[in-house]
Amino acid sequence: MHFSIGELSQKTGVKVPTIRYYEKIELLSAPIRSEGNQRRYSQQQLECLSFIKHGRDLGLPLEAIRELIELNAHPERPCAHADEIATSHLSDIRARITQLKRLEAELDRIVAGCKANQVGDCYVIRSLANHELCQTDH
């Protein structure tokens, strides 16, 4: 069974320009072409694109996904490298969460401090204009 690019997009939730981009950077293999030069994707390419989409949904960078696709092509290999990729990404996510929590606290403080009725007296505007009004380094 083969799919058009539109069908592939619909089945995976990946937009057509993104599918073309993944082909261009060789993350997704090039499809066969019909006699009318229309792209025709296999079930394997659909599964690969679903894999890529899920990895992107989890926030994995494209190069990590590329490495995981390569690992997936060799099921007999140990999975230690896949674990390393996931562990490294988890560490990055945790660092971003910590940073976002600092941002949340600072923005919460700034918003709570704004009791003005006019922009000229607005603490939010003043805080954005003067970083020294912030309590934390964010």
Offer a quick outline of the entry.
This protein is mainly α and 138 residues long. It is built from 6 helices and 3 strands, in the order E-H-H-E-E-H-H-H-H.
Q: What are the defining features of this structure?
A:
138 residues, mainly alpha, 60% helix, 6% strand
Describe the structure.
With 138 residues, this protein is mostly helical. Helices cover 60% and strands 6% of the residues. It has 6 helices and 3 strands; from the N terminus they run βααββαααα. A 3-stranded antiparallel β-sheet has the order 1-3-2.
Task: Outline the fold blueprint.
Layout: E1 2-3, H1 5-12, H2 16-24, E2 32-33, E3 39-42, H3 43-57, H4 62-72, H5 80-112, H6 123-129
Antiparallel strand pairs: 1-3, 2-3
Helix pairs in contact: 3-4
Helix content: 55-70%
The largest sheet, given as strand count, sense and whether it forms a barrel, is: 3 strands, antiparallel
Rough shape?
elongated
Low-pLDDT residue intervals, each spanning 5 or more residues: none
> Structural class, please?
mainly alpha
Strands across the major sheet, in which order?
1-3-2
